[in-house]
Structure to design on (76 residues):
């Protein structure tokens, strides 16, 4: 999960699946946000977000790619 404000990784998980239960844990452990944006994958719709959820099916400008360096620095 990437903060749009800071453009920084706030939480992540490494797994072989993208189950909504796994994603829910990431959302629950991350700092609260007013708006949550996704790339439109259907599994995100089963997650309960504490703020507004925006499903970007056609416009992915609100989604981000994280670099390996960012992920490593988060856990360091």
């Amino acid at each position: 999960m990437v903060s749009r404000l800071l453009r920084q990784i706030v939480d992540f998980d490494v797994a072989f699946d993208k189950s909504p239960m796994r994603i829910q844990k990431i959302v629950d452990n991350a700092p609260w946000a007013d708006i949550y944006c996704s790339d439109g994958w259907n599994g995100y719709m089963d997650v309960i977000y504490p703020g507004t959820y925006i499903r970007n099916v056609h416009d992915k400008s609100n989604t981000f790619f994280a670099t390996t360096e960012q992920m490593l620095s988060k856990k360091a």
Q: What stands out?
A: The first strand starts at residue 2 and ends at 3.
